[in-house]
Design brief:
The chain is α/β, with parallel strands linked by helices. Helix content is 47%, strand content 26%. Strands 3, 4, 5, 6, 7, 8, 9, 10 and 11 form a nine-stranded mixed β-sheet that branches. Strands 1-2 form a two-stranded antiparallel sheet.
């Protein structure tokens, strides 16, 4: 069992498929399958449950995955340390939510790319829960997430602050939102989204029933459906300003307890940050 084999193993786990892992690694599938079979023979155990829908880890496979993530993280940290020339270069994988990606990051990414063209930037979008997990599993070098989750394994750098508001169709007056509650649908992201959690807190604060929910995976889709009269939602005011859409919705302010939310940039405390990541943090550090 060697480092290249562990990297192949990790990719199969992440992709959930031998075929997709081979495509990602630019290998033929037979090579990926053969490397995994050699690992299973060496370890005298099955690592994957294979089915038509893909590959999932066995109990022993889960144990190996945990160790492999730590081994590969340390290996990659050592490789970075040995190759550091002082000039940021190589891959840098960053995660963020949709608001941060569309409103806050374009100028930062552009400046960083112009200053350090040898760095291969990539941006992954997701909700806070998914991004936290990705940083913990070393799939991302760091991520912008909303505050409010306790975890001692992260280094946190304050980044931005958002002002959250309730948005309703502009055909409704502010006082009609609560009085017409039973006729409204609640437009939200899926479970795990910080905005959804804040909206739920507002609903409880107003002593309203849960209501009918419709889930989306796009800020633009939620806003468009609010404008068309489909229901209400909770969105960052910066997003409405950036899209110049405030005149098309009715805005309800939140209580001081719920209104503000801070975005922080998290890194894995156990890993040494390279020059590429340190320079990226300096772009927004206050």
């Amino acid at each position: 069992m060697d480092i290249p084999s562990l990297r192949i193993f990790r990719e199969v786990v992440r992709e959930g498929s031998f075929t997709r892992a081979a495509e990602k690694l630019h290998f033929v599938q037979s090579n990926v399958t053969a490397r995994i079979q050699v690992m299973e023979k060496e370890l005298k155990t099955s690592l994957f449950l294979r089915s038509k829908s893909g590959a999932s880890l066995t109990a022993k496979g889960k144990i190996l995955y945990d160790y492999s993530e730590r081994i590969l993280a340390l290996t990659e940290e050592a490789e970075r340390a040995l190759s550091e020339s002082g000039i940021p270069e190589g891959p840098l994988e960053i995660g963020s939510g949709q608001t941060t990606a569309s409103v806050r990051l374009p100028s930062i990414l552009s400046k960083y790319h112009l200053k350090f063209p040898k760095v291969r930037l990539s941006l992954r979008q997701g909700n806070t829960e998914d991004l936290v997990r990705a940083v913990l599993e070393n799939q991302l070098d760091g991520a912008f997430v909303y505050e409010g989750f306790p975890h001692s394994q992260f280094l946190e750098t304050p980044a931005f602050q958002e002002n959250l508001v309730i948005v309703a169709p502009n055909t409704m007056k502010r006082n009609e939102v609560v009085s017409s509650w039973k006729q409204l649908s609640i437009l939200t992201f899926k479970s795990g989204c910080t905005f959804r959690n804040r909206l739920d807190q507002w609903i409880q604060e107003q002593s309203l029933p849960p209501g009918k929910r419709i889930e989306f995976d796009s800020l633009d889709a939620i806003l468009s459906c609010v404008i068309s009269g489909m229901g209400i939602s909770l969105l960052p005011e910066s997003y409405l300003n950036e899209r110049r859409q405030k005149k098309f919705v009715t805005i309800l302010p939140l209580s001081s307890k719920l209104r503000k939310i801070r975005t922080v940039f998290i890194r894995n405390r156990e890993l040494k940050s390279g020059n590429s990541l340190n320079e990226f943090v300096r772009m927004f550090e206050k």
